[in-house]
């Protein structure tokens, strides 16, 4: 898969199908778009590309937004590749680019730089300076600039549109089962294992400590998980605590993963942690002994 950081496409990737959006999480709603794009690809022998932005415009304009992303760019790249995407334009979103007028975006970027045959967008897609451009404007210039807009009806689940916002909401409420169903996979965090205070080791449950960075904050609590690192031959099952560790008065949000039947060193390695089942909410215990007793119960549930 080819990754572009600007709009200078190779000749081979011009006159393609281009899907524009954040595609955070690459959920079932996104998959509907890509499956339709694949039908166009097969029928017309065209390549499929994605135009996306980093950081997300919403995050760029609101610095107070923390813990928002369902997946990081590396995960998104792998998921899109599996859906048949052959190239990604991952454009850096900055103040200068945000001031591009919508007509200039259509004329100078879409038409002159990308030259797509088809553009797939959602109904609520907005672009250009102060979000002045919309799908109606794109359709208005179809004949002038030689592209065709495709905007399929959004996929719904029980009358609710399947969106990244819905998935975030489900994760934040602890409804992991439904979130995983809409993602069509287990929600996964990838992060570097850091040195901690070794509290887990002291009470008999050594953990891999992971800073979750910009990932959405799923409901703080205990989860059954599986984990994989490049140095591991296969996935390992385990239990994780996501939260602030109130028993030890910690202020920093952390993901702590205890792996079953593993005693190696994973410091500074990247661990991919799949969230399989929500076990219980995080709570404060009177002392470490009481916490230790609860962890033993949690382990039995996680293993089951």
Quick recap of the structure?
The chain has helices spanning 28-44, 57-61, 73-82, 95-98, 102-114, 135-140, 142-145, 164-172, 176-183, 199-202, 288-303; strands at 2-4, 17-20, 48-54, 87-92, 118-120, 126-127, 133-134, 148-150, 156-157, 160-161, 188-194, 208-210, 221-228, 236-243, 254-259, 270-281.
Characterise this structure:
By secondary structure, the protein is an alpha/beta fold. It folds into two domains: 2-161, Rossmann fold (3-Layer(aba) Sandwich), CATH 3.40.50.620; 186-303, Riboflavin kinase-like (Elongation Factor Tu (Ef-tu), domain 3), CATH 2.40.30.30. Helices cover 32% and strands 26% of the residues. The chain is built from eleven helices and 16 strands. The protein has helices at 28-44, 57-61, 73-82, 95-98, 102-114, 135-140, 142-145, 164-172, 176-183, 199-202, 288-303; strands spanning 2-4, 17-20, 48-54, 87-92, 118-120, 126-127, 133-134, 148-150, 156-157, 160-161, 188-194, 208-210, 221-228, 236-243, 254-259, 270-281. A six-stranded parallel beta sheet has the order 1-4-3-2-5-8. It has a six-stranded antiparallel beta barrel with strand order 11-12-15-14-13-16. The chain has a two-stranded antiparallel ribbon with strand order 6-7. α1 (28-44) links the parallel β2 (17-20) and β3. α8 runs antiparallel to α9 (176-183). The longest helix is centred in the first third of the chain and has 17 residues, at 28-44. It is elongated. The mean pLDDT is 91.
């Amino acid at each position: 898969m080819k990754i572009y950081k600007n709009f200078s496409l190779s000749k081979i990737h011009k006159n393609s199908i281009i899907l524009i959006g954040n595609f955070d999480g690459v959920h079932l709603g996104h998959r509907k778009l890509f499956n339709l794009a694949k039908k166009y690809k097969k029928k017309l022998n065209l390549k499929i590309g994605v135009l996306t932005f980093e950081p997300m415009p919403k995050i760029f304009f609101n610095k107070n937004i923390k813990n928002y992303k369902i997946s990081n760019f590396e995960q998104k790249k792998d998921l899109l590749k599996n859906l048949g995407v052959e190239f990604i334009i991952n454009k850096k979103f900055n103040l200068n680019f945000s001031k591009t007028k919508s007509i200039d975006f259509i004329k100078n970027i879409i038409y002159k730089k990308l030259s797509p045959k088809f553009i797939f967008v959602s109904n609520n897609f907005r672009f250009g300076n102060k979000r002045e451009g919309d799908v109606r404007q794109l359709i208005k210039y179809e004949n002038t600039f030689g592209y065709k807009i495709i905007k399929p009806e959004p996929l719904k689940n029980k009358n609710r549109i399947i969106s990244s916002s819905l998935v975030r909401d489900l994760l934040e409420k602890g409804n992991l089962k439904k979130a995983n169903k809409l993602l069509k996979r287990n929600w996964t965090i990838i992060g570097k294992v850091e040195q901690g205070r070794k509290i887990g080791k002291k009470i008999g449950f050594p953990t891999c400590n992971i800073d979750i960075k910009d990932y959405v904050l799923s409901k703080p609590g205990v989860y059954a998980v599986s984990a994989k690192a490049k140095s591991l031959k296969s996935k390992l099952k385990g239990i994780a605590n996501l939260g602030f560790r109130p028993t030890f008065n910690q202020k920093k949000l952390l993901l702590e993963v205890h792996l079953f039947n593993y005693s190696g060193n994973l410091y500074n390695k990247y661990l991919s942690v799949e969230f399989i089942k929500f076990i219980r909410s995080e709570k404060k215990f009177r002392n470490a002994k009481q916490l230790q007793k609860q962890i033993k119960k949690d382990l039995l549930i996680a293993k089951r």
